[in-house]
Backbone:
């Protein structure tokens, strides 16, 4: 939702809803750019500060659990990505899938133990940190950071559909609506109007990845639908797993929204 013109595939709220309930970090940057977790962390914290300054309660809504975790637990100041180094390291891995992991074991054995040999992205990022800072990634990534819960009263709610059949049915209905609204046309326009790099998250995102495959004649309409459906179900499963292991999370069924509203009203009176 952070990217402009990515409306249908991301199930972005309508213009009417966005006008009635102003959102931050929606339609935020051009798809020509890559929005990083570091950018999110800094901008989200700035939003929290400004909200409190204006006697408002900041509310974060979404399903990207990794971003929520980093917002809660803090983000270390690490060097920015080095695309040239990443391409070089990625090339080394093409010949031997375990080569980079073996390299990391020599340079930073503690970090290597935390990462599976086939986790190319994390291995390359770890080697990138070592190369650009001269320090072990395990030391930098384990540095203490200020947790959000140490600074603020954080209340967390997770809305979960307990009935798996109902969840899968709703996912399928939602996907049909997304396709009927013009998912493929939206992706065609994105590819035409923006320079979307090969490593851009959009190319790996659910719905966008499958639509790009259809446009590139990699599979049929039916195959695109089934692949997108499977990917969405897997994403939902992963999110539920995160939620069930999430510390201090109040899990609610989807018809218990009023409990959240009542809690927010109580918090508002304390400001």
Residues:
């Amino acid at each position: 939702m952070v990217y402009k013109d990515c409306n249908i595939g991301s199930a972005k709220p309508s213009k009417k809803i966005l006008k009635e309930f102003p959102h931050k970090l929606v339609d935020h940057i051009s798809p020509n750019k890559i929005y990083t977790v570091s950018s999110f962390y800094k901008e989200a914290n700035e939003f929290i500060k400004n909200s409190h300054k204006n006697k408002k309660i900041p509310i974060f809504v979404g399903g990207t659990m990794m971003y929520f975790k980093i917002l809660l637990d803090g983000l270390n100041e690490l060097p920015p990505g080095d695309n040239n180094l990443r391409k070089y390291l990625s090339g080394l891995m093409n010949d031997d899938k375990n080569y980079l992991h073996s390299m990391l074991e020599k340079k930073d054995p503690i970090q290597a133990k935390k990462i599976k040999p086939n986790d190319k992205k994390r291995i390359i990022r770890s080697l990138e940190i070592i190369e650009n800072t001269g320090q072990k990634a395990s030391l930098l990534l384990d540095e203490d950071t200020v947790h959000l819960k140490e600074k603020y009263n954080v209340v967390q709610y997770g809305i979960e559909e307990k009935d798996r059949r109902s969840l899968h049915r709703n996912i399928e209905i939602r996907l049909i609506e997304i396709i009927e609204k013009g998912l493929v046309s939206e992706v065609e326009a994105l590819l035409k109007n923006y320079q979307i790099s090969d490593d851009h998250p959009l190319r790996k995102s659910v719905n966008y990845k499958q639509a790009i495959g259809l446009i590139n004649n990699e599979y049929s309409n039916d195959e695109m639908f089934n692949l997108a459906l499977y990917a969405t179900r897997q994403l939902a499963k992963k999110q539920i797993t995160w939620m069930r292991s999430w510390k201090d999370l109040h899990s609610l069924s989807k018809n218990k929204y009023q409990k959240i509203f009542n809690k927010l009203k109580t918090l508002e009176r304390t400001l």
About this structure: The radius of gyration is 21 Å. The chain has a mean pLDDT of 86.
